[in-house]
Each structure stands twice: as structure tokens, then as C-alpha cells.
Amino acid sequence: MADAPFLAYGRQVIEDDDLAAVAQALRADFLTTGPRVAQFEAAFAEKVGARHAIACSNGTAALHLAMLGLGVGPGDVVIAPTLTFAATANCARYQGAEVVFADVDPDTGLMTADTLAEAMTRIGGRPLKAVLPVHLNGHAADLPALKRVAEAAGAPLVEDAAHAVGTAMTFDNVPERVGDCRHSALTCFSFHPVKTLTTGEGGMVTTNDDALAQRVARLRSHGIVREPADFVDPEIGFDGEAPNPWAYEQQALGYNYRLPDVLCALGLSQLAKLDRFVERRRQLAQRYNELLPALAPLVRPVAQPWTSRSALHLFVVLIDFTAAGQTRRQVMEALRAKGIGTQVHYIPVHRQPYYRALYGEQTLSGAEAYYARCLSLPLQAGMADGDVDRVVGALGEVLGG
Ligand SMILES: *Cc1c(COP(=O)(O)O)cnc(C)c1O
């Protein structure tokens, strides 16, 4: 058999029309702050069903802008699940806020109303400013239930939807899309290359709140205001009644978190393929689900609760390594030798040295149980059905032998 190419756990799909869109953007007058930014934002807002979408330089910036937009600051508390990428917690630390880590369900990896309620017992009278559910693996967290718990403490939800662009779900028979902000103040997306839709680096914030949207859009670009109607200092802004053509006002301390036109062009082109990418990921996951029962009970796919149509950012299995008599490192390396890349999502954030130094040792047993077993298998929209067969076959050989 000829050597099959190495299969990474995730990889972008870039097609000829993506290249053409980028080339066209590179020949345009504006490489950044041009018309493609607003076009990408409008198309994205429409796709996810939000009033506003604000493009930014990456998913971490999107989360930071959400914290800034909500006015999260020193002494405030933000609750995030510990089973996530570090950025979910770091965005609060950028603002000097404290992170209280919530545990997760050991089978889904998702924060639940119960684990959120437990985390809320640990905030110690400090103001809770936001709760950040993570749609791990593309599976929507139970937003209505989380909202009920968070709302009781006066805190809005901010969704970390880095995994969930293209996820649709049904709560109480109402069809919803991740990003429509039906239950949250803001939703944050990432367009990193391993995510379902990519701009190389990129992110998006969606919201239905007009004032929040305006604040986030300004903070993305230094806190600068360009609309004369909103100027607060007549001396800089106006020559008598007439606005000075060069005038702008910095009214708050913002950042340069802009997404250039060149990348917005790629985003627009990729967005048009999102449904196809999600459909393909779901077909591949279906194939995994058909083949994996052969490896039960050692291996089983991560549980998917109420989500009706996950975009499946990752295809995660939970493996009983103890029963298999092998460590995760051994299994990963044996798969790698067979040309199959896997990854672990994630080391619980509360165990990272930075957070241990801040908050000490904590035991969050659901996250530990999930972390001990999880392994992300290859899932790319560009994979063939046969690739799934090859992965499951190899995993069977590795665990059996
Ligand atoms: C990728 C990711 C982020 C950060 O996105 P970047 O675009 O890499 O900054 C945040 N949260 C989660 C859960 C992610 O997977």
C-alpha cells in the first residue's frame, strides 16, 4: 500500500475561489479598514442571525473586546469552564478581573447549570460580571439553563463560540443558531485555521445590543470615534458648525484589534462554504459513529446532548486508557507512526502553572475525568470517507495490540 498522507486532527480547506478573493482584495485600494470589513460583518451577522457583527483580529481579541464592552475590571469576577482553551479565562485577566473556574460534565465537557451554580458559591461576594459558556467541540452549551442561573446573579452570558461557527440547535422547540445571542450579551468566534471557517487569524463578536456593538467596534480601533455627531470636544471636531475633515476623538482606551480587508475577503469567501463544510464534517462524524462501536467500550464518542446540528469543530472520543493498558502518549505516538495526528483538547485551565500560582490547587473532578480520557481524532472538511475508516482501523490496531 502506498503511504497515505499524514492526517492532522484539523486542517483548513482553501479552494481556488478563496485564492481569487484574496488576490482581488490585494489589488484593491484598501488592504485594511476598507469596504470588505463591513461586507464580511454584514454577511456574518445575517448567517448567524444577529443584529451586529464586529470583525476583529482573532478569537482572543473577540473575547477581550467582549470583556471591555461589558466594562469588566479589577475586582470583578468572571466564570469560565476550566475545560477550554486558555483564552476563555485570559480575556478576563487582561482586565484585571478574577476567574472562577466552573467544572464540566465528564461526558460532554460542557459547563452545565449545576456546575455553574456550584462555581457561583465560590465567588465570595465579589461582583459577577460575566459567565462564559464554551460550545466545546461545536456542541452548544445549554444556554437557557445557564442563563437562568447567571441571571439570578445579574450576570450576562458571553458565549465562547470559537468551536461553534455553523452550529444550530433547538431549545424548547425553538430553532436557534450559535451567534444569534438569543440568550447572551455577546458571542465570540475564532477563524484560526483549525476552526471550521478560517481567515488565517481572525475573530468576530456578535450582539443584538446596539450600544454594546458600538462600544466594541470603537474599542477595536483605539477607542476612536469618527462620527462628528458623537464628538464631545467641539474644539478638535469643528470649525464653527462645520466638522473638521481630519477630526477624530479618542474617547476610551482601545486597541488595534482590526481584521484587514484582505482577510475579510477570505472570510467572505469561506462563509459562503460554511454550510457545505459543516455538512461534510457531519457526514464524516456519522461515519465515525458507524465504525466506532466496534471499539466499544474502550472507546466512545463524546456525548452530544441537545444540540440538533453541531458544526463539529472537533471529533473527540473518550478512551479508557487504563483498561486499554496504554498511556495516552503511547496511543498518540503509535497513531502518529501510522500517519494519524491526534490532539488533546484541553488540559484544564485551572491546572496551568499561571492559574495555579494565582488561585492554588483546585479539584474539578468532571473536567479531570474528561481530560483523562479525551482524544481528538482527525476531522477536516477535506477528508475522504476512507480516511475515517483508516483512523478507526488504526485506533483498533493500536488499542488491540
Ligand atoms: C481557538 C479558541 C480561542 C481563541 O481563538 P484565537 O483566534 O486563536 O485567538 C478561544 N477559545 C476557544 C475555545 C478556542 O478554541
UniProtKB/TrEMBL annotation:
User: What keywords tag this UniProt record?
Assistant: Aminotransferase, Pyridoxal phosphate, Transferase
Q: What Pfam families does the annotation carry?
A: DegT_DnrJ_EryC1
Q: Name one GO biological process term.
A: polysaccharide biosynthetic process
| Record-listed N6-(pyridoxal phosphate)lysine modification sites | 195
- EC class name: transferase
- Which residues are catalytic? 195 (proton acceptor)
Listed GO molecular functions? pyridoxal phosphate binding; transaminase activity
Keyword Ribonucleoprotein on this protein?
A: no
Q: What is its EC number?
A: 2.6.1.92
Protein family per UniProt: Belongs to the DegT/DnrJ/EryC1 family.
Can you say what this protein is called?
Answer: UDP-4-amino-4, 6-dideoxy-N-acetyl-beta-L-altrosamine transaminase
Q: Which organism is it from?
A: Phenylobacterium montanum
Its gene name is pseC
